Amino acid sequence: MPRAADRTPGPTPPASDRRARGAAVEAAARKHLLAAGLRDVAANANYRFGELDLVMLDGAVLVFVEVRYRRDDRYGGGAASVDARKRRKLVLAAQSFLAAHPRLADGACRFDVVEADGDPAAPRLNWLRDAFRADDP
């Protein structure tokens, strides 16, 4: 059994390193989704309740994409970190986006998660379509 010290994460990298890593992973996720046929609508859309990493169209369906990076999956994949609190924030941000873009508000929408791990410059990606619903608890 690992000792407590073995489970303690290392030092937190500076915010600038986290931002650069996040930007690289989001760019890789965006490229992956574009190659799968989705179309760009917005990126890093900030609202009072939170940020939408990517907003895309999959056919006529508006897709709100949360990109989650983990260096490794030792503590669960990226989707595991999208807990009820984070889902609520994403739903509220999506509602704010739809209020600001009423022409997009009439169609179907969904929430996807792209899990990423490994090297941020060339991450392994796992796209979870319809990862959760706005009315999930």
From TrEMBL:
GO molecular function: nucleic acid binding
SUPFAM superfamilies in UniProt: Restriction endonuclease-like
Signal sequence, renumbered to the chain: none
Gene3D superfamilies to which the protein is assigned, alphabetical: 3.40.1350.10
Chain spans, region Disordered: 1-21
HAMAP family (alphabetical): UPF0102 (MF_00048)
NCBIfam families from the UniProt entry: PRK12497.1-3 (NF009150), YraN family protein (TIGR00252)
Family: Belongs to the UPF0102 family.
The name this protein goes by in its record: UPF0102 protein LA76x_1161
